[in-house]
Write a sequence for this structure.
């Protein structure tokens, strides 16, 4: 089954907890702190797999979680770092942050990698907190939480040439003749329900990929028919072969069909019409095709505002193979001189994506009337709390100093907090003292 859009959730591994420990060797008279650091958690990495051509693997597996790092140990031993979670994706996958709508990355090269969720670092053991005034600290950090993010994956077929046209215009038949692809072909509309890919190889050694896109209809850009959900696959093509049925067996006007398809492409993305386009007059083996082609050319000339911009017309018959060699050669020549504009190139993204939540402020304070408690929330303060070892008093005192340094004490006072009020951070509550 062809799947080209999915939503998934990924969670990087948490760092391991640091340890509070002390040296107790026989010949070490002063001992000292010896708690090791926690190990790093595992990152979540997308890696392009050239053997994949659909997002089907994500349809029933939507949650991915990397492993956490190991905890620190005594004798200053560091916990084991977790392995990264590598998730294969097909070429042409665009990754978007569902929460913010920002594009995380465009994966279009073989074996390209992108870190989409960064692992938490390991918490520091008490060896890092020793000082002349506190030579035996009972302070250690918990591991930093790994990033958690909701992502939208959208596959845009990577093809050099896109075949567009009304249903039953002959796209699948043409693809089956010029490539080794075997798309479904039948005498009714919407035979093609998913994009089909094929490779064309010329005698001179050149080759290019062709995508047969499901038939567009008038109103496709507004969701009519199948075209809307597959129009995105035209975005990556460099040359468009616009197939127009010249037989007239269904009573349609070929020129009106041509205008309707171009209108849908323009409404989806005006830049698509700036790309080289070849008009492929199909089914020329049928009786009325020649007369209809002449009428089509006349209408094209009459409506053209610039004669130099009129696309070249290639009459073909996929049944008798008439005109196919010339069409393929012309298409290859156009590809040799055509590159996607800078705006249409895949976005340059860093190997590592820096995820920032929609609400990335340090802290918020609000009063919960139901529980009669001041609630402190915010990405930074919650992360600091999660990294605090609440089992040791010195760690809690350190967290209190961090809160004071962030200005939370003053903010609570200004908000109206009084001595003895309850203050809550996540699932932890304490009493506010002036």
């Amino acid at each position: 089954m062809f799947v080209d859009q999915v939503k998934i959730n990924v969670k990087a591994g948490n760092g391991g907890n640091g340890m509070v420990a002390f040296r107790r060797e026989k010949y070490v008279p002063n001992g000292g702190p010896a708690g090791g650091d926690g190990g790093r958690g595992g990152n979540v990495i997308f890696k392009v797999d050239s053997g994949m051509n659909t997002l089907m693997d994500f349809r029933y597996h939507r949650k991915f979680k990397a492993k956490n790092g190991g905890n620190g140990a005594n004798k200053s031993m560091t916990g084991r770092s977790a392995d990264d979670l590598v998730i294969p994706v097909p070429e042409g996958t665009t990754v978007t942050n569902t929460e913010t709508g920002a594009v995380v990355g465009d994966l279009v090269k073989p074996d390209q990698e992108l870190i989409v969720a960064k692992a938490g670092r390991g918490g520091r053991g008490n060896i890092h907190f020793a000082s002349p005034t506190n030579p035996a600290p009972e302070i250690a950090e918990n591991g930093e939480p790994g990033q958690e993010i909701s992502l939208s994956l959208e596959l845009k077929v990577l093809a050099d040439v896109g075949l567009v046209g009304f249903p039953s215009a002959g796209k699948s038949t043409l693809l089956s003749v010029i490539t080794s692809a075997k798309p479904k072909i039948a005498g009714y509309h919407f035979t093609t329900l998913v994009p089909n890919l094929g490779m064309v190889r010329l005698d001179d050694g050149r080759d290019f990929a062709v995508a047969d896109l499901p038939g567009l209809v008038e109103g496709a850009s507004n969701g009519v028919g199948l075209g809307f959900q597959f129009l995105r696959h035209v975005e990556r093509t460099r040359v468009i072969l616009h197939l127009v049925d010249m037989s007239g067996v269904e009573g349609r006007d070929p020129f009106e069909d041509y205008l309707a398809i171009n209108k849908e492409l323009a409404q989806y993305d005006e830049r698509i019409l700036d790309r080289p386009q070849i008009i492929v007059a199909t089914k020329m083996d049928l009786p009325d095709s020649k007369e209809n082609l002449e009428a089509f050319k006349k209408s094209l000339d009459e409506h053209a505002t610039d004669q130099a911009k009129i696309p070249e017309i290639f009459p073909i018959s996929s049944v008798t193979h008439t005109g196919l060699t010339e069409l393929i050669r012309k298409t290859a020549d156009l590809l040799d001189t055509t590159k996607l504009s800078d705006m249409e190139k895949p976005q340059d993204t860093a190997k590592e994506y820096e995820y920032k939540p929609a609400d990335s402020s340090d802290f918020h304070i609000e009063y919960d009337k139901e529980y009669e408690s001041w609630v402190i929330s915010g990405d930074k303060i919650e992360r600091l709390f999660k990294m605090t070892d609440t089992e040791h008093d010195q760690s809690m005192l350190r967290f209190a100093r961090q809160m004071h340094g962030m200005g939370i004490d003053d903010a609570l006072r200004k908000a109206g907090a009084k001595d003895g009020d309850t203050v809550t951070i996540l699932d932890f509550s304490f009493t506010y003292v002036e």
About this structure: The chain is about 20% helix and 20% strand.
